[in-house]
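Section 5.1 Outputs to date
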Amino acid sequence: MRAIQSFLPNPRHTEIHRIYVQSKPETAWQTARHFDAAEIPWVKLLFDIRTLPDKLAGKPIALEEISVGVDQVVRSGTGFMLLEEIPGKEVVVGSVGQFWHLHIPFAEVAPEDFAQFDQPGWGKLAWAISVEPYRDGSTISLELRTTATDQRSWEKLNNYYRIIGMGRTLSAVP
């Protein structure tokens, strides 16, 4: 069983993206684990949309906020947490928040309480990067799981996801 399954076993939405690379698992892991997702156009677009009000208000954006690697995402105060890491194999990040707000309120949840957290009014997400050997190389997978603690929150989260999903899809068009 993959580690992400123990943290969000019954998601309402799941996406899995997998690629094959001609690299040994150790090399693939180092690259995937320390990859800066801010280099992906749709991630940069989403970041730019989220920070637009602060930019318009003249608030400076710290350089470390522009990086979107695992270590930057889970640093203290971001609302995201490292749920589990199996070095060389899988890293799982999670968050409980009201993601549909411009300035996201996050619930304070300890990693060991994440799976059981069910207080109404919140969305939950977990994503994992995993690497597995395959033939003469490796597969790198990114899995995203989302759910909510009640139906109303799910509707809000799902509507929000449709909007950011459009940004992701549009930015992929050449």
